[in-house]
Amino acid sequence: MQKESVIWPENARLVVSIVVNVEEGSEMSIIRGDKGMEPVDELGVFVKAPIRNYGNESNYLYGIKSGAPRVIDLLKQFDLPATWTVAAQSLESFPELAKAIRDSDHEPCSHGYRWIHQYKMDEKEEREFILNATNSIKTSCGRRPVGWLSRYLHTENTRRLLEEAGYKYHMDDYSGDVPFFDSEHPELVVVPYQLDTNDMKLWLNAGYTPDMWLKYAKDTFETLYREGEQTPKMMSLGVHLRIIGRPGRIWALEQFFEHIRKFDRIWVTTREKIAEHLR
C-alpha cells in the first residue's frame, strides 16, 4: 500500500501548520437574529429557548480581550506565521484584531461570514454567504482570503462555489496528513485539517488537560517528523483564542513552540503557501 508523502521545499521532513480560529463575536445569539443561544459552551450549558446565554457570550469575549493578545505575542516571540481562520463578522466587530492580522505575516482564511452551519443553506444562500465573507475579510484585512473552513458541516455545493469565487484551497477534510487535489474540483487544493490536535479537546467534555494536550501534540509532531525521513507530511495544530488563550493553557502552546524549534528540516508556514507549493 502506497504511503502518503509530499516533497517540501529545502528538503523539509515536515510542514507544521498553525491555525488560529477566530469565532468570537459571530457565534449564535438571538441578538444576531438566531432562534437561540450558541450550543458550544465550556460548561455544556444549552437551553433550547429564545434567550441569551450572557455567561457564554462573555466567555467568548474573553478570547478577544485576553486570549488574542497572548496568542499574538507568542507567535511574535517565536517568529511563527499562522493561518487565521476568521469568521468575517468577528473582524467587523473587533477591528483591532483585524489590524493585528493585517500588520503581520499571518494569513487570513475564511471561516464563513459568521460561525454558523452551512448545511441548511440552498445554493443561492451559500453562494451569498461565501461572497459576503470574502468581501468582508478583504475589507478588514486588506486582502481577500484564498482558503475556506466551514463550521464542520458543509454541502455538496461548497467546493464548486468556492472554485467559482476564486478560492485556492479548502480545509474541510480530515482524511490524511498531506494536501491533495480534488479531481472533481481541480482548481482547489484540499489542505487537510485535524481534530485530534485541536485545543477544542481542552474545552468540550474536558477531553484533555493542558499537559495531555501538549504531550499529544509533541507525540504527533515527533511521529510525523520521524516518518518524514522517508515520507514527508504535514501537521495541523488548531487553537482558539478563548481556549488556548487562558493563562492556565497558553503555557502549553509556548512549550510546543519551544519543542519544535529544536528540530531542523521543518517548515512552519501558512496554508496559502502550502497550497501554492502544490501548484
Q: How much strand?
A: 5-15%
Order of helices and strands: EHEHHEHEHEEEHEHHEH
How much helical structure, as a percent, in the residues?
25-40%
What does the main sheet amount to? 5 strands, parallel
Average of per-residue pLDDT values: 94
Shape: globular
Please give the alpha-carbon distance between the first and last residues.
25 Å
Structural class: alpha/beta
Number of strands: 9
- Uncertain regions spanning at least 5 consecutive residues: none
Give the helix tally.
9
Radius of gyration: 18 Å
List the helices and strands and how they pair.
Layout: E1 14-22, H1 54-78, E2 83-86, H2 88-93, H3 95-102, E3 107-110, H4 123-141, E4 147-148, H5 158-164, E5 169-170, E6 180-182, E7 185-190, H6 210-227, E8 233-240, H7 241-244, H8 250-260, E9 266-268, H9 271-278
Question: Main attributes?
Answer:
15% strand; four-stranded mixed beta sheet; alpha/beta; 279 residues; 38% helix; five-stranded parallel beta sheet
Please give a structural write-up:
- This protein is of the alpha/beta class and 279 residues long.
- It has helices at 54-78, 88-93, 95-102, 123-141, 158-164, 210-227, 241-244, 250-260, 271-278; strands spanning 14-22, 83-86, 107-110, 147-148, 169-170, 180-182, 185-190, 233-240, 266-268.
- Strands 1, 2, 3, 8 and 9 form a 5-stranded parallel β-sheet that branches.
- α5 links the parallel β4 (147-148) and β5.
- The longest helix has 25 residues, at 54-78.
- The chain is globular.
